[in-house]
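Render this sequence as a predicted structure.
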Amino acid sequence: MNNDLKFKLIEADPALSHYVESFWMLHNCSDEAKEIIVLPDGRMDLTLSQSSTQSFQIVCSGLETKPQAVILQGNALIFSISFKLLAVEYLLGKSISNLLNYAEYLPAQFWDFEPLDLLDFDLFCKKASKKISSLLPQHIDSRKQKLFQLLYQSRGGLSVAELSEQVHWSRRQIHRYFTEKFGISLKTYCDILRFKASFESIRNGRLFPEQHFADQSHFIKHIKKFSGVSPKQLKLNQNDRFVQFLVLPSE
């Protein structure tokens, strides 16, 4: 592993689990800039960052459907909240369809965050959790809640027809909801979740389909579509370019 890159991840408290997947930190301890690749993983991120050449900023990034090359400046420090999609409507009260494969800058004191919050990752997680807890809605659409529970539990393995039937919500209405709120179809989102579900297997050298893939050819094509490389190249992860692989367990 590249010792210049430090990555830490903390899972969200169960009370926030419908809306938040995790909190994570990425630190480039080197003075030199590094290129990293961010892979599609089905999450929306709220990120605080600064570096030796960049002042404090807060960024909201939408969903990705393709690998994104990012230059991590020297001494860059990033603290981030990775949200599940229910948070888009019920915590942020907005659409992120305009942020597909894109990000936007937020006001410097959004949610009362400030540069001092980058001094301690654990305290940042506590502050962010407290803020999110204060925003939790009293009522949510039960269809949406069940839809996302099924999506995450199955890791994208259920078809659109199966999801529609189980949540009693028409495919046409679900398609409209996804495209208007998130900028992609439910089918594409399922594909991204299936791609993300393969990370741990690939990291541990199992370069063959384990679930929800018709055959090896389909699996390889799926991995290349969202990562730009073959499963073997993804497993090698030269120079720790694929940062999501840094905290995956090794067998």
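Summary. Residues 5-135 form one domain. The beta strands are 5-11, 20-28, 34-38, 44-50, 57-61, 68-72, 77-83, 103-106.
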